[in-house]
Amino acid sequence: MKVGLIGLGNMGSGMAANLLKAGHDLSVYNRTPGKLQALVERGAKAADQVSEACHGDAVITMLADDAAVESVVFGDKGVIASMGQNAIHISTSTISIALSERLTAAHAKAGQRFVAAPVFGRPEAAAAAKLFIVVGGAPDAIDICTPLFEAIGQKTFRLSDKPQAASLVKLSGNFLIASVIEALSEAMALVGKAGIDQHQYLDILTSALFTAPVYKTYGGLIADKKFVPAGFAAPLAHKDIRLVLAASESLRAPMPLASLLQNRLLTLIARGGESLDWSAISQLAAEESGTPPEPPLRR
Ligand SMILES: NC(=O)c1ccc[n+]([C@@H]2O[C@H](COP(=O)([O-])OP(=O)(O)OC[C@H]3O[C@@H](n4cnc5c(N)ncnc54)[C@H](OP(=O)(O)O)[C@@H]3O)[C@@H](O)[C@H]2O)c1
After folding, report:
1. What's this model's pTM, rounded to 2 decimal places?
2. Ligand 1 in contact with 119 (CB < 6 A)?
3. Per-residue pLDDT tens digits for 19-50
């Protein structure tokens, strides 16, 4: 397919490489142009402007947050102004329910289609084409996008004809991961303070009770205190919990645990952890137990 990809961050660069590997005709755009070169060497066309990545069958956006998506999509030379009739915008970023709805309406008004396809999996999964993709949109549009999903992921879930449903499932999933990270952080601070080896503790727990990869991955990062480079940076996690709380508010489904997680992530950012992985909230539980946190959080 002739496709554009906008946003070559931790996730988008791996996805772009896999689209090329699968033989798609790919144009790439990134706000910071330095990230284009590696993909051009693999056969991608460099787009100097957003509009140059929008002349194919579909445009994929993999951008940080609502503000980034809005700045690229709307406006004179944005995605909507540049895409052809019937072309499909596939949003793989984790965005708000409200923006998903706004994009659906705006693309429809322009005679285009919008598919929300947020993903589960860290940058390593994106690089290995092992993402899990949750899709919402018109069934015929999803059919057309299927070869692209097959190129970047290991499984696609066709959830709904409403894009915002996919955004909600993604946000709820990140709320659950953050909850796991906080629970692991508290338990590991507890046993660590008692002098129990945290790696051995993790081995016991992930063998006997919690065998899911999420416990192994995040438990390992917490035990190793490996928060740099950030696979998923604290400000992005904070953004997701804020969006979960917004959904909780509008659907009138209280989520007290989400409020606690928002506070944890905000504290992490306020104390200098902006560039750390979200699993660094573990340092807050550790510090509360009397263990000095790792730099840059040490006071
Ligand atoms: N990392 C993960 O584990 C993970 C997993 C699943 C989903 N996600 C979601 O995927 C999305 C991307 O995550 P990521 O980890 O790839 O983030 P990232 O590494 O921070 O990359 C963000 C991308 O957005 C661009 N961007 C940011 N603000 C912009 C603006 N105002 N205008 C234009 N471009 C802008 C950045 O461009 P520059 O290069 O110029 O800064 C970069 O290409 C987020 O919605 C995140 O929640 C992440």
Report:
1. 0.95
2. yes
3. 999 999 999 999 999 999 999 999 999 999 99
